[in-house]
Write a structure and sequence with these properties.
This protein has about 150 residues and is an alpha+beta fold. The protein is about 50% helix and about 15% strand. It has a 3-stranded antiparallel β-sheet, with helices on one face. Helix 2 packs antiparallel against helix 3 (about 85-110). The radius of gyration is 18 Å and the shape is elongated.
């Protein structure tokens, strides 16, 4: 039997400094219990990552979608076989998550432009405004870790 569980909580230093919870997580398995995975996104806590909470949330959402898509395709192909198909597809998964995350944060930024408070913060941090498309993802800075288990 395969169980998955995830939880998140705000750290004591973030509570003391009145900082938002910048981390997201997820854990799940497919209905047939042929695979499970856990995801943890740790938003960068520095001041210049003004949307890292949103970046972490987007990372987990995107990784969930991409992981389900790829695992549903490869699980039937790998049953009982030892080959490099898993490794190749996990590399593909990393690339796919990265590209989709970047596209999604840029779309989020375009739909939710900088607030006056965020613009002021960017100016104080000596960021050139308006931000260029290649700079936008840095505002959403996060680290993503994923563990995949197949039966």
């Amino acid at each position: 039997m395969l169980f998955t569980l995830s939880a998140r909580c705000q750290g004591s230093s973030h509570k003391k400094e009145n900082k938002p919870l910048q981390d997201y997580c997820a854990a799940t398995s497919d209905k047939l219990k042929t695979y499970a995975y856990a995801l943890v996104a740790d938003g960068h806590g520095e001041e210049k990552y003004i949307r890292s909470e949103k970046g972490a949330q987007i990372a987990v959402t995107v990784a969930t979608e991409c992981t389900n898509e790829i695992l549903k395709k490869i699980i039937p192909l790998i049953r009982g076989k030892k080959n490099d198909l898993i490794e190749k597809n996990l590399k593909l998964l990393c690339v796919k998550i990265s590209i989709k995350w970047k596209e999604t944060v840029i779309r989020d930024f375009n739909e939710n432009p900088l607030t006056s408070e965020e613009s002021e913060l960017c100016e104080n941090l000596k960021m050139n405004l308006p931000l260029q498309e290649e700079t936008i993802p840095s505002l959403y800075g996060t680290t993503l870790l994923e563990a995949v288990y197949t039966i």
